[in-house]
Amino acid sequence: MELLDNNKEMSKNFSEKSFFRKVKRFALRVGKAGIGLALTLFYTAMDSDTPKWAKTIILASLGYLILPIDAIPDIIPGLGFSDDLSALLAAFSSIAVHIKEEHKLKAKEKLAKYFKE
Q1: How many helices (H) and strands (E) does the chain have?
Q2: Is residue 114 within 8 Å of 23, Cβ to Cβ?
Q3: How far apart are CA 112 and CA 117, in angstroms?
Q4: pLDDT per position in the chain (117 positions), as tens?
Q5: Nearest to 41 by CA among 116, 110, 115
């Protein structure tokens, strides 16, 4: 994957396989909106038109989502994913101008599979 090949430091904390495994595992606990946000960011990062600085921000937030150790442990009911969602929202707002309709569409299609719509 070109994105990770060009950023070896990020590839230590993020992989496509671990991202999708965590998304699938925690979809119901994180919620549709949170998973939709993560998927939209993922597809934005995979786009060759997205600038490297934006990809770095996205991968940092997605890496935080999949890391097993968080500021607030994911196992705490009601609070566990609040830090993860905050990181995703911060990334989303800082790179929003690079999110295309096609990224949102891909995320929506994948989301429908996770939530069986």
Answers
A1: 7, 0
A2: yes
A3: 5
A4: 444 444 454 455 567 777 787 777 777 667 788 889 999 999 999 999 999 999 999 998 888 877 766 655 555 555 566 777 888 999 999 999 999 999 999 999 988 887 776
A5: 110
Tokens of 6: 């060009």
Which single residue is written with the structure tokens 């429908």? 112
| Amino acid at the residue 82 | S
Residue 22 corresponds to which tokens in the numbers above? 């965590």
User: How many angstroms separate the CA atoms of 42 and 47, rounded?
Assistant: 9
Taking the model in full, what pTM does it have? 0.75
Q: Which residue has the tokens 């609040």?
A: 82
